[in-house]
Design goal:
Strands 10, 11, 12, 13, 14, 15 and 16 form a 7-stranded antiparallel beta sheet that branches. A hairpin with a 2-residue loop joins strand 8 and strand 9. It is elongated, with a radius of gyration of 25 Å. The chain has about 475 residues and is an alpha+beta fold. The protein has 2 domains: about 300 residues, Orthogonal Bundle (Neutral Protease, domain 2); about 140 residues, Jelly Rolls. The chain has 13 helices and 16 strands. It binds calcium ion and zinc ion. The site of zinc ion (ZN) has 7 residues, from strand 1, helix 6 and helix 7. The site of calcium ion has 7 residues, from strand 16.
Length: about 475
């Protein structure tokens, strides 16, 4: 009988929403009914605008190099390439998938496998298919066209491999896809610095998610793992919430996730047994409340108790710890006859929104031109992990001396609520190792001068910790010093 129930999961993966959620948002599912008949719904193509800008493609390739797996798994697990790989033009693509497989699959297997799942996976390149990627039994298939159009995207493999580990006897709705996206989020993205993507915990997509299979729910899974973790007690594994539900689906005790609201069904009964909450919806409401109030802040998986299952080290959002200095505020806003920052070369910066609002406009001497950058313009994850939302490094061209600086914030031209309120100015004589000069934690001024004391240096760095009141856009009109 088991064969009849074999599932075929299809994840439509487009370079848009899926990056954000771990899988396509407008995706559809091709599954099997209990009688084994295949059903397929039509895919709606999500718009390109939700493309996840936090995930620089070129960095993802470094995954295996940066995060060597602790288990020597390559002997036990195997990936076999089949199909039309000769039609895929990027020579490195196959290699990148291979690396990913040997990093991610052993982790997924160790955490969620029971021993019956396949250890060899056949990775098939197929041109004659509508599905962008899918997996079933011991196979994962990728569409040739998708691979050629999006060679930078390899993260979908982790999602599909999680489906291989699931091998659920029945098809569920949100749980199946949410869990696969979580497998990708935790054991691919958050397993290496360069793959990390950050989620706005107060974002609308997160708060409004209501059990759509491809919606923004990976953080809910992260919350479940955090609050109700799998633990080792007296030498025995005691499964937490996520692992308990996963196991109950695998062994047929849970066959339906379509009613998260009514207490007493098998799904919610298990939730109650482990958490005390009557329903998964009651738990979700608590999670949203905690996200909004800040009583639970996701900063990586480093502190998760269930890490003992794999003994992994995770990247962590951790602000740099060093001795910050705060300079006294001047009673007047100073202007400088000889502004030593004027027309300094932008040596590096975290990004800008367009050619009319570049970082250079911070130091062009004009009060009506600004450096503007949105959160999405920042792709340097290593800085984001340290809490730096935006930054700029200026080369003053030669050694320059100044003893105070003036910042013209957004409020000098636009709404005051756009003001950056926390930043740090640092100096250096090389473009790399900077020395703290002035740290401001909660400055509300539109234009303000700080007395740093006399400094002579070649390079200046400005780090923005709080760019605005809302979505993380920085708007700074001038930075001057003398
Ligand atoms: Ca300017
Ligand atoms: Zn999927």
């Amino acid at each position: 009988m088991k064969k009849l129930y074999a599932r075929r999961f299809v994840s439509f993966i487009l370079a848009s929403a899926f990056m954000l959620s771990g899988c396509s948002s407008g995706g559809s599912e091709s599954g099997t009914t209990s009688s084994g008949t295949s059903i397929k719904t039509t895919e709606t193509v999500p718009s390109e605008t939700v493309y996840n800008e936090y995930l620089p493609s070129e960095m993802k390739r470094e995954f295996s190099v940066r995060n060597p797996m602790q288990l020597d798994s390559s002997k036990e697990f195997k990936v076999v390439f089949e199909g039309e790989w000769d039609k895929i033009t990027d020579e490195e693509y196959k290699h990148a998938l291979q690396n990913e497989f040997y990093q991610v699959y052993p982790r997924l297997y160790t955490r969620w496998g029971t021993g019956s799942e396949p250890k060899t996976i056949h990775l098939i390149a197929e041109s004659n298919t509508e599905d962008i990627a899918c997996s079933w039994e011991d196979k994962v298939q990728v569409q040739v066209r998708y691979a050629n159009e999006h060679p930078e995207d390899i993260g979908y493999l982790a999602h599909e491999l999680t489906h291989n580990i699931q091998s659920y006897p029945v098809g569920l709705k949100w749980w199946t896809e949410g869990f696969a996206s979580y497998g990708r989020f935790r054991y691919f993205h958050w397993a290496a610095d360069d793959c990390v993507y950050l989620i706005d915990q107060k974002g609308e997509d997160l708060i409004n998610w209501s059990y759509e299979p491809y919606g923004e729910c990976v953080l809910f899974f992260a919350y479940m793992d955090y609050r109700f973790p799998t633990l080792l007690k007296n030498g025995e594994w005691v499964p937490g919430l996520v692992d308990s539900i996963h196991r109950a689906i695998k062994n047929g005790e849970i066959t339906d996730d379509s009613d998260p609201y009514t207490p007493g069904n098998p799904f919610n009964s298990l939730v109650k047994k482990i958490t005390g909450y009557e329903t998964i919806e009651a738990l979700r409401a608590k999670y949203v409340e905690e996200c909004v109030n800040g009583t639970w802040v996701f900063d990586g998986f480093g502190s998760y108790k269930d890490n003992i299952v794999l003994g992994m080290h995770y990247p962590q959002i951790k602000p740099d710890v060093y001795d910050r200095k705060t300079a006294p505020k001047s009673s007047t806003v100073k202007e400088y006859a000889n502004n030593v920052f004027k027309d300094a070369r932008v040596y590096r910066c975290s990004g800008f929104i367009n050619g009319n609002e570049t970082a250079a406009m911070l130091v062009d001497g004009k009060y009506d031109t600004k450096w503007c950058a949105e959160k999405g313009n920042v792709t340097e994850v290593s800085m984001l992990l340290k809490g730096v939302c935006h930054y700029i490094v200026l080369d003053l061209g030669s050694y320059k001396t100044f003893s105070s600086y003036t910042l013209y914030n957004a409020g000098t031209v636009e709404d005051e609520s756009y003001n950056a309120t926390s930043w740090e100015l640092l100096w250096s004589n090389t473009p790399n190792h900077f020395i703290p000069l002035d740290y401001q934690k909660d400055c509300k001024e539109n234009a303000v001068t700080f007395e740093t004391g006399e400094v002579t240096c070649r390079y200046i760095m400005l780090k923005i910790y709080t760019p605005d009141n809302g979505p993380g856009t920085v708007r700074l009109y001038e930075l001057q010093a003398g």
